[in-house]
Amino acid sequence: MHKRAIWCVCLLTLLWMAAGTPLRAQDHGKPPVYTYLAEWAVPRAQWADMTKVDEDERPLMDKLVADGTIIGHGAWTNLIHQEGEPTHGTWFTASSEGNLMKALEALYARPTLTAPVLAASKHWDYIMVSRTYNGRSGKFEGGYLSGGGDVKPGHEREYQELGNAVFVPVLEKLLADGAITSYTVASEDYHTHKPGRVTFVLTTPDAAALDKVDQAFEPLFEKNLSLGPALGSMTDAETQRDFLARVRYMTNK
What we know:
Strand order of the largest sheet: 1-3-2-9-6-8-7-4
CATH architecture: 2-Layer Sandwich
Distance between the termini: 37 Å
Largest sheet: 8 strands, antiparallel, barrel
Strand content: 25-35%
Radius of gyration: 17 Å
Number of helices: 7
Order of helices and strands: HEHEEHHEEEHEEHHE
Number of domains: 1
CATH class: Alpha Beta
Structural class: alpha+beta
Number of strands: 9
CATH topology: Alpha-Beta Plaits
Helix content: 25-40%
């Protein structure tokens, strides 16, 4: 397995940043946070229209962050395109399902809900829950979002424990050094896939930071040759998919 696929799988959406501000305290017994993720497969001729829809909705989402309804939101564009797969996506995160639905209803009330580009695009929605996460507060323009995941049913707890013990300390150091701006380990709160679907997402401030992430994880596998096989036994190689996206913007309280 390629090294990037290995650490994406083992680490395991949505995300927080802004350089120079204090990090939230690391705590894997944290209260859960909930993320609503919307993905779209947009015809290439309408990519600019999709960006405009997201920008039109952005002030509302910033307002919902400011009043405490949600704790973060953002938008991304996929950089590894596959036929029929998502090209664009948005997310927003709240500390409760009630607030998540309040934000969703506010979006549903907007006229952009019936924009032609949305009607022309294939669409997926997910509600995710996470108890392993960290990041920086503020606003961020640009950067990259990467990750992957898929754990075999029955191995979720084992997988999470290994990730918390081995990989999260590396992520915390990368976060403190500014090489990443956030990370999240999330699973579906309302299942639309088979049980065991776990997704790891991290964000970086620029392309150079992607190399720093690779370099930080390489020594773990070089020093512990059993780590790769252990992860492989917990994950589903047939359904594992990695992703890389360009973050157009993120805001987090």
